[in-house]
UniProtKB/TrEMBL annotation:
The keyword Secreted does not apply. Keywords: Metal-binding, Transferase, Zinc. This is 3-keto-5-aminohexanoate cleavage protein. InterPro entries: Aldolase_TIM, BKACE. Signal peptide: none annotated. Its cofactor is Zn(2+). It comes from Rhizobium loti. Pfam families: BKACE. GO terms for molecular function: 3-keto-5-aminohexanoate cleavage activity; metal ion binding.
Length: 309
């Protein structure tokens, strides 16, 4: 019998900019509200970034995270997952600051470097709300999202060994699965692993369902019964890939970090809208939605009482 589906919701991210959608959560209050609503809609895990409340720019400040993390915890039972990806261009230390401060149950961890090109989005917009936005996008034409083995080891030992935090291992390409397998062989992490396969970012694996099938096959060979796998896809590919993951017995991620839309040409007015839509799809396929406590048990998390917020 298929396991229940763990829905992760990534509420704001560090890719889209304020000009792109008026519904993108920016302030700590907006991020907290969006996260609570997504949890109420069925998300077991909330993946979190922070933004400068004045201009919406991705911001690694622990103070911003500590403004919304306690509020979400007080109003929901969701697993709170703090990004260590941060915003493109941040240093390793900047990307890790909030997670070290919060000591969360989960944190994201990218397991390979890649060209991370979001500059093509510039062509879609002319009037920008803030000067930083086009510069931020343009710089990714000559940018490598750095995640070396030394970086990965540093994060795992700082957060995993130091805080008992488990990871959402973000894999943007086939080689990243093999990177993770090598990390497992070194004994840096222990099962169960949570593997998040990412599709549709320029520089990573393309959003082709054949790629999903192949990455799932390889992950099964590498990790067998010692892992949980999930899928996210950028932009218009979000819902088709989420549906395919559910059909294959996996888990899935939605949220305004990954796509600003809920249908062709129709912006999502909230993260909860996307969660409700994918929940309906999953339930129509005959599968059930995992609670936060089910996710904790399956992922071997330390529990909400053990965090620092």
């Amino acid at each position: 019998m298929a396991k229940s589906v763990i829905i992760t919701c990534a509420t704001t991210g560090g890719i889209h900019t304020p000009t792109m959608s008026e519904y993108l959560p920016i302030t700590p209050t907006e991020i907290a509200q969006a996260s609570v609503e997504a949890a109420e809609a069925g998300a077991a895990i909330i993946h979190l970034h922070a933004r400068n409340p004045e201009n919406g720019k991705p911001d690694p400040s622990p103070e911003l995270f500590m403004d919304f993390l306690p509020r979400i915890k007080q109003q929901s039972n969701a697993v709170l997952n703090v990004s260590t990806g941060g915003g493109l261009g941040m240093t390793r230390e900047e990307r890790l600051r909030a997670a070290v401060k919060a000591s969360p149950e989960m944190a994201s961890l990218n397991v390979g470097s890649l060209n991370f090109g979001i500059f093509p989005m510039m062509a879609k917009y002319k009037d920008w709300k803030h000067d930083w936005e086009p510069k931020f996008l343009e710089m990714t034409k000559d940018f490598i999202f750095r995640n070396t083995f030394a970086d990965i080891e540093y994060v795992i030992k700082e957060l995993g060994d130091g805080h008992g935090t488990k990871f959402e291992f973000e894999c943007y390409d086939l080689g990243h699965l093999y990177n993770l397998a090598w990390i497992v062989e070194q004994g840096w992490v222990k099962p169960p692993f949570f593997v998040q396969m990412v599709f549709g970012i320029l520089g990573g694996v393309g959003a082709d369902l054949d790629n999903l099938m192949h990455m799932h096959t390889i992950a099964e060979k590498l990790f067998g019964g010692s892992y949980e796998w999930s899928v996210l896809a950028a932009g218009r590919h979000q819902m088709p890939f989420a549906t395919q993951a559910a059909l294959l017995g996996g888990n899935l991620r939605v949220g305004l970090e990954d796509s600003l839309y809920i249908g062709p040409g129709e912006k999502a007015k909230s993260n909860a809208d996307q969660v409700r839509k994918v929940r309906q799809i999953v339930e129509n396929l005959g599968r059930t939605i995992a609670t936060a406590d089910e996710a904790r048990q399956r992922l071997g998390l330390k529990g909400a009482s053990e965090v620092s917020f």
